[in-house]
Amino acid sequence: MESAIDTHLQCPRTLTRRAGEDYRPPFPVWVARAGEDVTQVVMGYLGVQYRGEEHRDTAFAVLRQIVDQFGLPDGPGTWDVTHHRDAAGADNLVAVGYWRDPGTYGRWLARPEVAGWWDADERLTGDVGVFREILSPRVDGFETLYPFTDRLPGVGGVMDGVSDEIEEHAYWGSMRDRIPRSQTDRMRPSGELTAQGGGGRVVVRGHDDLALIRSGQDWSDAGPEEHELYETEVEPALRAAMDFLRDRGQRLGCYSNRYVRYIDLDGTPLDKTYAISHWRSLDRLEQWAETHPTHLRVFVAFVSLARRFTTLRLYHEVSVVRADEQYYEYVNCHPATGLLRDATVPGPS
């Protein structure tokens, strides 16, 4: 058993862990590992927004263009595609790609087929909107957690392997304890979200120590009985919690919550979901997870039925990012999309 924090990222602690030194977790889990050459990754959420079935074909054509761009040189090492309907009733298709380093991402982004497409005036008109939410956490600012060691989703797909069984899990506060920065840094936020631009193209600037969590569920390997158990006993509680955060999470410090389902490029739903959620701070995320009834109901549902699930794959990744590690752009999207809702427009100086 070892620490979730890799040896080259460990340092003398000035802040203590939530668990005591003699703590032993009740079951095994692992984290993704990368070599010391990986110092910063890129997570790119590239979305297409539309309203009404009459615009569905156009939206999927745009989504396929984005995915085709992933296949260019320096494209992401792994990617997936999802659908969700937001609180305003708009449908959103999102392709998320992961890069092992900002340099590769920067070369991909600078290609005329990519930069020219996003910057084109054509994006400002028409029946669909597009957005991109780019986060580039340093390796001391993110953590992962998997109760399995193969086919790692998300950022795990661009890592080099997995750890041995880790110590820091199965207690409140373990999420923070797995982030290397937590050894010496409380990771408290400063600043605000600010919006710049207009005319259909708005850029949101993030603030220091914003938190992002991707929390996933995969029941694609389940047999009929386990499949029904998940979709009737667990998924409804999860959906209720995610809808609460989507619709009412603002006062809790949740900027944006999307509960998304994997799809193929024709729109067929797959038996995999995840929530992608932006928070004012890791503190706010922890407070909701540890105390709010909506999350506790999900926790109870999972725990009470855990022994009956043999193939369900749950995982998450959490990042705490500085202001200069974030970029959000919304083109021809409604004003409550993503982080637009909570961004303020600076007044005249």
User: Order of helices and strands, N to C?
Assistant: EEHEEHHEEEHEEEHEEHHEE
> Which class best fits the helix and strand makeup?
alpha+beta
Average pLDDT level: 94
Radius of gyration over alpha carbons? 20 Å
Number of helices: 7
Strand order of the largest sheet: 6-13-10-12-11-3-4-2-5-14-9-8
Largest sheet: 12 strands, antiparallel
The quaternary organization reads as single chain
Measured between the Cα atoms of the first and last residue, the distance is 55 Å
Protein name: Phenylacetaldoxime dehydratase family protein
Keywords: Heme, Iron, Lyase, Metal-binding
Cofactor: heme b
InterPro entries: OXD
What does this structure look like?
Strands 6-13-10-12-11-3-4-2-5-14-9-8 form a 12-stranded antiparallel beta sheet. A two-stranded antiparallel ribbon has the order 1-7. With 349 residues, the protein is α+β, with helices and mostly antiparallel strands. Helix 5 packs antiparallel against helix 7 (293-305). The protein is built from 7 helices and 14 strands.
